[in-house]
Amino acid sequence: MIKIIQFLQENESILELIIEKKASLLGVTELECQSILCSFEEEICQETLFWG
Prior knowledge:
mainly alpha; Competence_ComX_Bacillus; competence; ComX pheromone; prenylation; lipoprotein
């Protein structure tokens, strides 16, 4: 799962497609996908709190 997160960090356009439900992660369960997306949401919140 770490490699998927690294890939999505490097390819933000793919991440946006997954968030918009226009793309999916093959071989990843719905729960795993939710966890991956949640990690990006937490990252955004932490940056906002730090820089805000």
